[in-house]
Amino acid sequence: MKFLLLLSLVGFCWAQYDPHTQYGRTSIVHLFEWRWVDIAKECERYLGPKGFGGVQVSPPNENVVIHNPSRPWYERYQPISYKICTRSGNENEFRDMVTRCNNVGVRIYVDAVINHMCSTGNAAGTSSTCGSYYNPNNRDFPAVPYSGWDFNDGKCNGGINNYNDANQVRNCHLLGLLDLALEKDYVRTTIADYMNNLIDIGVAGFRLDAAKHMWPGDIKAILNKLHNLNTKWFSQGSRPFIFQEVIDLGNEAIKSNEYFGNGRVTEFKFGAKLGTVIRKWNGEKMAYLKNWGEGWGMMPTDRALVFVDNHDNQRGHGAGGASILTFWDARLYKMAVGFMLAHPYGFTRVMSSYRWDRRFENGKDVNDWIGPPNNNGAIKEVTINADTTCGNGWVCEHRWRQIRNMVAFRNVVQSQPFANWWDNGSNQVAFGRGNRGFIVFNNDDWSLSARLQTGLPAGTYCDVISGDKINGSCTGIKVQVSGDGTAQFSISNSAEDPFIAIHAESKL
Ligand code: QV4
Ligand code: CA
Q1: Quick check: CB of 74 below 6 Å from ligand 1?
Q2: pLDDT at 11
Q3: Among the options 18, 62, 245, 497, which is catalytic?
Q4: Is 202 within 8 Å of 231 (Cβ atoms)?
Q5: Does residue 150's CB lie within 6 angstroms of at least one atom of ligand 1?
Q6: 132 near 69, Cβ under 8 Å?
Q7: What's the CA angle centered on 8, arms 244 and 243, to 5 degrees?
Q8: Ligand 1 atom 1: the closest Cα is on which residue?
Q9: Angle of the 216-223 helix axis to the 185-201 helix axis, nearest 10
Q10: Among 229, 321, 317, which residue's Cα sits nearest to residue 275?
């Protein structure tokens, strides 16, 4: 009996770290600002067939409508109520998306904005995505309902001036956003009711927005109120997957590890450091990546949610600075995403963006606020071109051959150990994953030519970066692995994509 009890406890506490993706699916994609109807279609036509594990969706709850500037993406981080009613769609469309994605093995993770409501900068009224009335000045949100009692004004009614004062960071206004009193049971229950509605619909878990600004104990109290996942798609007793947005680059009072008890935590050092290495700034070189992961001062791999860029730092918000690689730096970006997906560290999230008219003044993009492609405020449909890329201004990085194929690579090498590291002491490196996969990078200004131990069985393999294995033949480079596991690699430094990846399922 004791063993069973232990098992259930381990199972219970373990689960917040488990994304509950279908077996063999190891990454999720952030379809930033997509409409629910488009996500449902993408699950069925692409994400399911291509082995994606799930989708992080933009906040589904009613938000403020900002007209100055005109409908910025960030209005969705200013809640008005917990009605599932935004520019991405209504509750029926949300339900339909969750059902259709789950039915093809693709999970849905909700961006939960539960630290705050809208900013004090908004005038009272009904300028909201579902028409609900609100008055930030007297903390009146009747569509929840929240009133003055439910906010932290008694503790702090100013901004966060000192990020080394944990009380300020948790109890004051992040960016002027009205801070909820999460120690109150009424507030905790109201938030849990919102999240439980989503859980009962069939979502697999949550991104907790601005988690650094919430006390870990308050988060835990809310999580303890959450239902188990819907047994229509998840096994009995499954707990919601939790990943908490905590930006910890090591220079503030608040540390990621304070949040480990609640679930996984976003590892922002990952993208910031990898961007610096791939850009070869500050004397960094890829040869130093031999001990990538905890060796670089990052959190334990089983607590980390990792990514190259996110919706904030791809446009200069949040953290990471100029080193962050994005789709705007396509060639280097593909290398960084390829490295992330091949390496065993962390649970991986791929970014999927929209283009906007960047305009730099004094080094800052003054158009960093621009929202998703739209027709007079209505988000545009994600159209799919004949070459499988996206139209209407959607970037669809997750559909780029190199990235899509590396998502599959990660699935094929799942649970295989990091192996057969090689480097030239500079920016030519290679490593494998057991006997299931191998990847080689040339980020030097000269060509790579080397015979390397791949760890793979003998045979002819299709390089999934330069092409695809289609009907048993390869549309790209072919790699011959000998009986001793070695293969000759040649990569020009001027190649379109100066890296090669092969794996057990790309064997011809
Ligand atoms: C302005 C002033 C404030 C003033 C306020 C008064 O800057 O000093 O008090 O007006 O009204 C937008 C504007 C911002 C404005 C604010 C409130 O950019 O200038 O404040 O609205 O009107 C996103 C955007 C923010 C945006 C916010 C709310 O990034 O620019 O603010 O949404 O619309 C820290 C946190 C981290 C956070 C990161 C951005 O630790 O948690 O900052 N990241 C998450 C999300 C992010 C989101 C929020 C948190 C807030 O990833 O997208 O901020 O929910 O690092
Ligand atoms: Ca707070």
Answers
A1: yes
A2: 45
A3: 245
A4: no
A5: no
A6: no
A7: 10
A8: 175
A9: 50
A10: 321
In whole numbers, what is the pLDDT of the chain averaged over residues?
Answer: 97
d(CA 478, CA 489): 10
Query: Model confidence over 277-306: pLDDT tens digits?
Result: 999 999 999 999 999 999 999 999 999 999
What are the E-state strand segments in 186-334? 205-208, 241-244, 264-266, 304-306
Element spanning 38, H or E: helix 36-42
Task: Give the pLDDT confidence score for residue 12 in this predicted structure.
Answer: 47
Residue closest via CA to ligand 1's atom 20 equals 175
Burial environment of residue 435 by CB neighbours within 10 A (0 to 12, 13 to 18, 19 or more): middle
Say if residue 307 is exposed, middle or buried (CB neighbours under 10 Å; 0-12, 13-18, 19+). Answer: buried
Q: pTM score > 0.90 for this model?
A: yes
90 contacts: CB under 8 Å, gap ≥ 6: 84
Q: Torsions phi, psi of 93, nearest 5?
A: -65, -35
Q: Which ligand is nearest to the CA of 317?
A: 1
Name the residue of 32, 63, 66, 77 whose CB sits within 8 Å of the most ligand 1 atoms, as the mutation to test its pocket.
77
Please indicate whether residue 245 is annotated as part of the active site.
yes
Q: Which sign, positive or negative, has the C-alpha torsion 254, 258, 179, 208?
A: positive
* Residue 212, ligand 1, Cβ within 6 A: yes
* Residues counted in the chain: 508
